[in-house]
Automatic annotation (TrEMBL):
CDD domains, per the entry: Met_dep_hydrolase_A
The organism of origin for this protein: Robiginitalea aurantiaca
Entry annotated with the keyword Ion transport: no
Domain of life, source organism: Bacteria
InterPro entries on file: Amidohydro-rel, DNase_TatD-rel_CS, Metal-dep_hydrolase_composite, Metal_Hydrolase, Metallo-dep_Hydrolase, OTAase-like
Protein name per the record: Amidohydrolase family protein
Length: 461
């Protein structure tokens, strides 16, 4: 029980009023909430004060503010206040159904409009930050940050960096390097040899990328490369790492094969994306190096076998998918044993609307089913926020921390009905995937969504 009522008098605090800078900053006080702060495995009885776009105070004692036009007091009705969610692997510019080849006939206007729809979709699900893992530059981010469009914060990789016939070479067999729409639009960079890698990665940074994504193994959806293919030489990969480091940032790799995983870590790659079939030796190495692990875990769920795309056993991607699953039986055990810094990775492409929502909702559930709610929530919050900082001096959101509820952090806040540490469904998770009841964009159990101090949704009343 909290007995003391602490009255905060803003009159005496010029900085809290923002008086020195002219216009006073907006104040929001959240009371009557239980706080999941991102790092503690239980809910805390706290009041949370937001000033402008940052969290100003997280108090054990009840807070009170003097009511002015500038002040909003929100009674959380005993619900859970938690950090906005972070998805550390999305593809804004691939929010489209069909096959990869259809991008060859899609205009930039449509791809851009679809990305805007995707951004709105993500914010409506409570994702206040995404790390876009290739394809997006900062055009859409700028529009969102300017307040013209609702969407999450975006950490953009720029065009994904692939060798010829690699996982990011999406053209048809008749198209050679430089001839594809994806390259013209700079969504993909097909580069070979050290010089072209340097040029491609440098070009990404010029367009606003804050880190680099490189494909170093075969992939499931791509059509020109077998899953076992090793991609890029050490020299080429090193060129990407050196360039990223020149910009004060890091390289994340799309990787499946263990030899590629090992050499990536040894060459200075900081984030392993996918890596579902990681060996025990490589998991140890990943933890030793302090790298982040970003597995698209849902591919290994039993429910994934029901994926409509995988119903034809002769379809090339299905064969690759099945091979990968057969090689990836120890992932959960290694994660539990070595506890890598792990982030949430949805990585859905070629899906929109209801099927997209079903995948996302199930992915949250599956993460919690495999590793427990606290672990899943950390991947979705504090761990994603820590990963965001790897972008170094180019970090576009360096004013505060992301993924945590603490003083000085960005005011990216959800209020959800129920305790997500006990029931992951309160953040929109679903134990059903393909058979799930179709839902609208809105997630009803998320009652409030605040990003950067601005309230985008409030159904508490
Ligand atoms: Zn991806």
């Amino acid at each position: 029980m909290r007995k003391l009522l602490l009255i905060i008098c803003f009159i005496g605090s010029a900085s809290w009023l923002g008086a020195q800078s002219g216009t006073p900053k907006k104040i929001t006080l959240f009371t009557n909430v239980q706080v999941f702060d991102g790092t503690t495995d239980r809910l805390l009885n706290r009041d949370v004060l937001v000033e402008g776009n940052l969290i100003k105070a997280v108090s054990e004692e009840p807070l009170a503010v003097i009511q002015t036009d500038n002040v909003t007091i929100i009674d959380g009705q005993g619900m859970t206040l938690m950090p906005g969610l972070i998805d550390s692997h999305t593809h804004l510019n691939m929010y489209k159904t069909g096959s990869l080849h259809e991008f060859e006939g899609t205009t930039w206007e449509e791809i851009g409009a679809r990305a805007a729809a995707f951004a709105q979709e993500m914010l409506a699900m409570g994702f206040t930050t995404i790390r876009d893992m290739g394809g997006a530059h900062v055009g859409l981010k700028n529009v969102i940050d300017e307040g013209l469009l609702d969407g999450p914060r975006i950490y953009a990789a720029g065009g994904f960096v692939s060798q010829t016939s690699g996982h990011g070479d999406f053209g048809m067999l008749t198209q050679r390097k430089g001839e594809t729409n994806m390259e013209r639009l700079e969504i993909a960079r097909v580069v070979d040899g050290r010089d072209e890698v340097l040029e491609g990665v440098r070009r990404n940074y010029a367009l606003g990328a804050v880190y680099t994504k490189v494909m170093v193994s075969g992939g499931v959806t791509s059509l020109k490369d077998p899953i076992y293919a090793s991609q890029f030489s050490d020299d080429e990969l090193s060129a990407a790492v050196e360039t990223a480091e020149d910009w004060g940032s890091y390289v994340a790799v799309h990787v499946f094969q263990n030899p590629d995983l090992k050499r990536s870590l040894e060459l200075g790659v900081k984030v392993i994306d996918h890596g579902l079939n990681i060996s025990e030796e490589n998991m140890k190495l990943l933890v030793e190096k302090g790298a982040f692990f970003s597995p698209n875990l849902t591919a290994l769920a039993p429910e994934a076998l029901l994926h409509p795309a995988h119903q034809d056993p002769d379809f090339p991607s299905t064969k690759k998918f099945m091979t990968l699953r057969e090689q990836s039986t120890n992932l959960t055990a290694y994660v539990k044993k070595y506890k890598p810094k792990m982030v949430f990775n949805s990585d859905y492409v070629l899906l929109t609307g209801v099927p997209y929502r079903q995948c996302m909702d199930f992915t949250k559930f599956h993460m919690a089913r495999e590793f427990g709610n606290f672990w899943a929530l950390q991947t979705l919050t504090v761990n994603g926020g820590e990963l965001a900082k790897l972008t170094g001096p180019g970090n576009p959101y360096a004013e505060g921390d992301l993924g945590v509820i603490k003083e000085g952090a960005y005011a990216d806040i959800l209020i959800v009905e129920g305790n997500p540490l006990e029931d992951i469904k309160v953040i929109g998770a679903s134990d059903k995937w393909f058979g799930a009841e179709p839902r609208e964009q809105d997630v009803p159990s998320i009652k409030l969504i605040m990003k950067d101090g601005k309230i985008y949704k409030n159904t508490l009343e």
